[in-house]
Amino acid sequence: PPPRPPYPSRGVQVVTTRQLRALGIAPHAAAAGAPAGSRYPELLPGIRLLHPGPATAEERLYAALLYTASRAATPGPAMITGLAALALHHFTATPPLTALEHVEVLVPRSRRLCSTGFLRVVRGPCLPIPEEIGGIPTAPVPRALADAVAEVPDTPTVLRLLTEAVRGAHCEAADILRELGRCGLTDRPQVADAMDAVLAQGRAMAEGRLYAMVRGHRLPEPLWNVALRLPGGTPLIEVDAYWPEQAVALDLDTTRERPAIAGPDARAAHRRSELERLGICLLRVSPDRLRTAPADQAAVVRTALIAAAEREPTGYVVVRPR
Description:
Helix content: 25-40%
Protein name: DUF559 domain-containing protein
Number of helices: 10
Strand order of the largest sheet: 12-11-10-9-13
Number of strands: 13
Order of helices and strands: EHEEHEHEEEEHHHHEEEHEHHE
Largest sheet: 5 strands, mixed
Distance between the termini: 73 Å
Organism: Streptomyces palmae
């Protein structure tokens, strides 16, 4: 009988040549149900398929991971990345798994492993923690995007991939840009051209979540998108929401989405100090926290509004639309 594949259920029938030999089966033996004279098909060097006909998309993924593991002297991390990983994350802007010419596997930089067949090896100095999707170790979306973008030459495709990540709530724009920078991709023309659109998309999504948080948790309605100024016209700060009766301002913290901007922490500290002098409480809320824990952020805002009754009266400020 054919050997049992090393993966439970799901119909995956991929093994190594060594596993076949350990079971006393010659790799050239006929696969179950195959025509007389046929052999276990070789998907990658040393990796065999236990049935006749082409491998499924999932079997190609397992074959790539099995090949990577079989070439390691000691067990180490490896995960599907690039377009294949984005397809596993249910991106619609990627081709289906069955249409992909290559499967990319992310391994540590120290691994001595060469690309072969449909397997493309991607190396990294610091690997992320993989996500299990259908039992397959898969790179998180920001890293999978970076590895996919590295192989995409045109701006429209890069833009579709990056904006879908933000619009589909897979991750924040800051997460994407941070990973692109870590992989040295932000200077590529097709990436640079897409960055402004990705930031704008991320900002719009964060604002939508802020509106939903305020209304969904029945917070008092603030003044939206306003600029605070001193009576003489000196600008103080532009904020996303302001509760004038309680003197509480809320600002979406997107200062770290562009690492090239110098000194955002120092400027933020100065603004906070000036606002505190006027008796205004400034809350900084990250888009990521709005996405993952809106109830917690609503509780922070509610606490600040309640605590306003115990603060000294505020100095006079002028509020204008931003």
